[in-house]
Amino acid sequence: MNEGSKKTIKTLCFAVVGMFTFSFALVPLYNVFCEVTGLNGKIELKATSDKSIEIDNGRDISVQFVSHNNEEMPWTFKPSEDVIKIKTGKYHTATFYVKNPTNKKMTAQAIPSVAPSNAASHLKKLECFCFEQQELAPGEEALLPVRMIFDDELPDSIKSVVLSYTLFDVTDYNDVELTRHHHDGDDEGHEMESSL
Amino acid sequence: MSAVIESHNHDDHHHGPAKGLTRWLYTTNHKDIGTLYLWFSFAMFLIGGAMALVIRAELFEPGMQIVEPEFYNQMLTLHGLIMVFGAVMPAFVGLANWLVPMMVGAPDMALPRMNNLSFWILPVAFFILLSSLFMEGGAPNFGWTFYAPLSTTYAPPSTTFFIFSVHIMGASSIMGSINVIVTIMNMRAPGMTLMKMPLFVWSWLITAYLLIAVMPVLAGAVTMMLMDIHFGTSFFNAAGGGDPVLFQHIFWFFGHPEVYIMILPAFGITSHIIETFSRKQLFGHTSMVWAMTSIAILSFVVWAHHMFTVGLPLAAELFFMWATMLIAVPTGVKVFNWVTTMFKGSITYETPMLFAIAFVVLFTIGGFSGLMLAITPADFQYHDTYFVVAHFHYVLVPGSIFSIMAAVYFWIPKWTGNMYDERLGKLHFWLSFVGVNVTFFPQHWIGLAGMPRRYPDYALQFADWNMVSSVGAFLFGASQILFLFIVLKTVMGGKKATPEVWEGSRGLEWTIESPAPYHTFTTPPKVN
Q1: pTM exceeds cut of 0.80
Q2: A140-154 tens-digit pLDDT
Q3: B122, B142, B244, B412 — which has fewest CB within 10 A?
Q4: The dihedral sign for the CA sequence B400, B405, B410, B415
Q5: Is B453 part of the annotated catalytic residue set?
Q6: Above 80 in pLDDT, residue A177?
């Protein structure tokens, strides 16, 4: 084999390794892109401490709260108020009611999303129950707070914002994840057998 | 084909092939490996086709008759995966193996042992994939696009085997592409500059680069799935900070170049056949090269047109709409190129030419429905309906598959030394042509009327056209048995082919005798 071929092979192997790495680099790139642009309604899962966004003469907007339970998450999960009227540049605290109706201790994680998506980058949170996992004992209930502010840069066309939370059951996450998957698979397997 | 090639053993300064099964197992000869790829692809085409017929049989009438919905989903998934990765791609690699060295005047592929490996891991991959049908929980059932979380949280346990088989297929494709690129870049006959290269070689050079760029991304996507399923990561799981939409971005970043991987070699094949049977030089060789190159580059910036309905921002929807429509320009260049080549040519209609002309017409129909789908607001209506199914089957069946059949008829005299039966070839063409249109054209209408894809049952108003479509599918399926018969008959014997085979043939492969000796161009030819 001549030198030219060896060089081509080397370059191509680098390209293959490079593209495989690139596919993983897409993950942080995607998240950074979404956070910077506020696309996809993603908001940062961390508290802001910026005081300068507080102003006195903000405009009125309405905020609707939406709550979902992911898959078969059994908790009761609903906003205390469905719609609130607030002013931009003013902090407001909203609460969500949760209850664990089961007889076992469970852990949950709420994931926020904002619509329209170009409002996402203007929503700042001082405190949110979505910043960490929530643990409830059997039958326990709680009011979870979110303290938030919309900065005054919020585009004028936006008069109403939807803040949605999806509650995920993460009780079994990480440690028993494997067994849970296999268990699910087994169940499907039995269904399949009977149906075939 | 073996019998024919072996008859040239007396050609003493060439080494003949080894005898028996080990010939095929250990072979490093590009012609043997090309043959293996083509037969493998044909076997997969029949298996994937049988699965399609299970689907069409179930959809013959509304209501559930033949299979359970779970099994229907498995058929749907495996049909897609097998046709894409098992039938179309290996067929093109097989054609590349047979033709690229002969067309550039090289003695063999640059890396013959890797060539053997890249073929022989393919049957392993598909054995693993097909064996998942017999596993507890059944085969993968989430569609060939395997969107998370269907393919992670809700997937059957056999998904791990699916992931492994995709890794093997990817490795095979990557090795095949490296081989093609190294051969083309370094082993061309003296005097064959890049712009003098035949278009099939050009189309494969571009395809191979696309494969190198995106197969690793597919490998990355399935690796992330594997980690989400087994190692507690959350790439695509929102509860852990991941995002299912991210999966679609990564998948289609691979997926859109992938659909061009399945059509670019067809462009090359069609160009050769049309110029041969028009007895004219191709209208524009350079413009064809540039058109293919621009299509390949554009394929990297249009992926999100598969995801218009996931909630993209307006700017992104506009960008991906315009970028997608831009692809119509180089595609138009190609279609007009073929048409102007035929214009005032002395055309004869042998079987390869019939398939090539059908390719131009029907691929263009598929291209137009693609343009309709590219219109973002319209796509909200068409998304996930049978219109999409009709669109991609029009570009893949009378597109890619017809071009592969055209190529087989066109070059089989060179491979076997025998002419195929022209009468049967034409019969095969007309049966396939009618079958394909009867199958897929009505799907445009039921799609526009709102029938969603991927369901085993449908509302009553779609019944008539579904029945027509199923009849067409069985006609098309049955006519492929005729194809198998024609190929076998040609391998066994037939009218002897001359070296140039066709009256208007041009290119190095037609300067060597038919059948092509086991070793060709051991001393490179001179190209002017």
Answers
A1: yes
A2: 999 999 988 888 888
A3: B244
A4: positive
A5: yes
A6: no
